[in-house]
Amino acid sequence: MTSNRHLFLAYSTYTSDRATFDRWYDEEHIPQVMDTTGMVGAQRFVLSETKPLPGVLPIDLGHLALYELDREPTDFREEVKQMLMSGAMVLPDFMVQPFKALFLQPVSDEFHGNAWDPDGLDERHLFFAWSRHTTDESTFEKWYDEEHIPQVMSAPGMLRAQRFRMGATKPLPGVEVPDLGHLALYELRGSLEGFRAEVKRMLMSGEMVLPDYMVQPFGATFMAPAARWSPAGR
After folding, report:
1. How many CB atoms lie within 10 A of CB 91?
2. Beta-bridge partner residues of 112
3. Taking all residues of the chain, what is their mean pLDDT, rounded to a whole number?
4. How far is it, in rounded angstroms, from Cα 156 to Cα 160?
5. 13 close to 74: Cβ distance less than 8 angstroms
6. Which residue in 62, 134, 206, 230 is deepest, having the highest Cβ count within 10 Å?
7. Helix (H) or strand (E) holding 73
8. What stretches of the chain adopt beta strand conformation (E)?
9. Helix (H) or strand (E) holding 231
């Protein structure tokens, strides 16, 4: 079973002071985006100070605005495109262009941990695990859903996990689309340190084994919240 939770990841860097950037994003930009079709909510994140896991390739694409939709984002894309082209939505000069963005479609259902609380997303931290493989898709998906994610979900503070791939929606005009492969997105409550320590322990002990068909090193990012979760319609 696959949920219909789609993601739009908008990565950016800026030249202004942090307060000016935060104020524009929270008071102007996100409220505009919240009025688009299919929008569920948004939250901003920054790179966490948590050390990378051993043997991974750390990926830092800058500040992240994560937008969650309840459908394929074709209408969302068209509405944002029209706002940008009409001048109704303006990206300030302090935003470094081009920014990087990804439309992601779900390829698994959601996995919920014992700490799952849909009303407790404000303080969630994120672990992005990007990967590629050399086996057939059914073998890869069976290992991920039946073995790997259940192991990771046993770590402290797990809220939710889900797998995604690049969506079919055309990119927005003028953005760069990083090619990062398959994404397993893990959401955690509070600090990432306990999660990192437990996953490292499982890897070092051999309790968690990455199959030979997983291309090494995989890319990964720990991210911390920079703003509260902003539900659409609030």
Report:
1. 14
2. 160
3. 95
4. 12
5. no
6. 230
7. none
8. 6-12, 39-47, 57-58, 63-69, 100-106, 111-112, 124-131, 158-166, 182-189, 219-225, 230-231
9. strand 230-231
